[in-house]
Amino acid sequence: MTYIVTDACIACKYTDCVEVCPVDCFYEGENFLVIHPDECIDCGVCEPECPVEAIKPDTEDDPDGKWLALNTKFADIWPNITRIKDAPPDADEKANETGKLEKYFSEKPGEGD
């Protein structure tokens, strides 16, 4: 099992989770974070830190493996992030939206650390 970042993070990108990760397995896109499944040690300390509950075990909220595949793909190409950053100004407004993958997801990398 590994933890994955799901739809709720898109366009919110709160980074509270990255600061508590003991193995620095988060990677930053323009408007989304991902967890590298080969680096995650399944400790779970990041999960309760996410204010929008976007972090889930891959066995719980990913029956078709879509989010695991997305996390894996982009963790290999986006820069590593280990420090907390400000969320986008409209993050709170978009926090409870659904269908954010189709509406807002960007494949562009973030800045990283």
Q: Could you explain how this protein is built, in words?
A:
The structure is a single chain. The strands form two sheets. This protein has a two-stranded antiparallel sheet with strand order 1-4. The longest helix is centred in the middle third of the chain and has 10 residues, at 66-75. It has helices at residues 16-20, 66-75, 91-94, 100-104; strands spanning 3-5, 26-28, 33-35, 55-57. The chain has a single domain, classed as Alpha-Beta Plaits (2-Layer Sandwich). The chain is globular, with a radius of gyration of 12 Å. The chain has 113 residues and is of the alpha+beta class. Helix content is 21%, strand content 11%. The mean pLDDT is 95.
Provide key terms for this protein.
globular; 113 residues; single chain; two-stranded antiparallel sheet; Alpha-Beta Plaits; 4 strands; alpha+beta; 4 helices
Largest sheet: 2 strands, antiparallel
Beta-strand fraction estimate: 5-15%
- Rg computed from alpha carbons, rounded to a whole number of angstroms: 12 Å
Tally of DSSP helical segments: 4
Q: Per CATH, which architecture? A: 2-Layer Sandwich
How widely separated are the two ends? Answer: 27 Å
Topology of this protein?
Elements lengths: L2 E3 L10 H5 L5 E3 L4 E3 L19 E3 L8 H10 L15 H4 L5 H5 L9
Antiparallel strand pairs: 1-4, 2-3
Brief summary:
The chain is of the alpha+beta class. It has a single domain, classed as Alpha-Beta Plaits (2-Layer Sandwich), CATH 3.30.70. 21% of the residues lie in helices and 11% in strands.
